[in-house]
């Protein structure tokens, strides 16, 4: 019993997680989105709950069921994800941004379905930048412990280290996009102020547990 109690490394902690893609409408039947199955974020939510945390998952559209014990809020757009996060982040100890948030939304989205007219006449989409949810949270005066994710297509070690500093967060988790999208396994690299460390290729559940262990350790280190 004592061992089981001790393994609840996040007992009493509140963890807020974003996961999945966002979907930005072009018109009522079309939109633009990012590649993300949600599997990594959902696995992290499950692992955090298993570690004893109260877990809220703000999720874009995925085909996944809510993990057992986890409170899920489903959203579609980056703006909705931003608003759902900002509404409750003040009470959180840890924020883990796993979502593949669309950097841009369609500024001139149509209220009605855009009709196909002639071959030469194509819709002219204009874009507006979405709020950066992670950067907004990290900039709060009493920010929770913030963890970011980065899927890169090249130069992971260089881009990962730079992105952690740019986002002003203690921990950034990097991976190579085409090694992970939709897959059950992944390879992660953790970037912090001390440098980087790789987590060997494993299934997403196992990586999620390792990441939650790492975060619990960092929190204990920082707060005694
Ligand atoms: N993120 C976010 N809100 C956004 C964009 C990104 O919260 N509007 C979060 C992601 O969930 C992730 C981290 O920021 O944890 C890094 O996302 P990424 O797309 O790699 O970073 P960007 O700063 O958008 O840079 P890039 O130009 O490489 O897309
Ligand atoms: Ca981005």
From TrEMBL:
Residues 15-224 are annotated as: Phosphopantothenate--cysteine ligase. CTP binds at residues 103, 113, 131-134, 149, 163, 167. Its cofactor is FMN; Mg(2+). One of its GO terms (molecular function) is phosphopantothenoylcysteine decarboxylase activity. Keywords: Decarboxylase, Flavoprotein, FMN, Ligase, Lyase, Magnesium, Metal-binding, Multifunctional enzyme. The keyword Metal-binding applies. Catalyzes two steps in the biosynthesis of coenzyme A. In the first step cysteine is conjugated to 4'-phosphopantothenate to form 4-phosphopantothenoylcysteine, in the latter compound is decarboxylated to form 4'-phosphopantotheine. In the N-terminal section; belongs to the HFCD (homo-oligomeric flavin containing Cys decarboxylase) superfamily. In the C-terminal section; belongs to the PPC synthetase family. This is Coenzyme A biosynthesis bifunctional protein CoaBC. It comes from Undibacterium danionis. The gene is coaBC.
């Amino acid at each position: 019993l004592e061992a089981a109690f001790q393994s609840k490394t996040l007992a009493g902690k509140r963890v807020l997680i974003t996961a999945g893609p966002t979907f930005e409408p072009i018109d009522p039947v079309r939109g633009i989105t990012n590649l993300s199955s949600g599997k990594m974020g959902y696995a992290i939510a499950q692992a955090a709950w298993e570690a004893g945390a109260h877990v809220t998952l703000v999720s874009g559209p995925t085909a996944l069921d809510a993990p057992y014990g986890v409170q899920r809020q489903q959203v579609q757009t980056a703006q909705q994800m931003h608003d759902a996060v900002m509404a409750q982040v003040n009470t959180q100890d840890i924020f883990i941004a796993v979502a593949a948030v669309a950097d841009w939304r369609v500024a001139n989205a149509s209220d009605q379905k855009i009709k196909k007219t002639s071959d030469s006449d194509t819709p002219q989409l204009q874009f507006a930048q979405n709020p950066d949810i992670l950067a907004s949270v990290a900039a709060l005066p009493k920010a929770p412990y913030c963890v970011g994710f980065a899927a890169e297509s090249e130069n992971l070690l260089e881009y990962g280290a730079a992105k952690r500093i740019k986002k002003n967060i203690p921990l950034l988790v990097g991976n190579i996009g085409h090694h992970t999208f939709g897959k059950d396994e992944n390879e992660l690299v953790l970037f912090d102020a001390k440098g980087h460390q790789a987590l060997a290729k494993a299934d997403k559940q196992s990586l999620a547990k390792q990441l939650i262990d790492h975060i619990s350790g960092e929190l204990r280190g920082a707060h005694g």
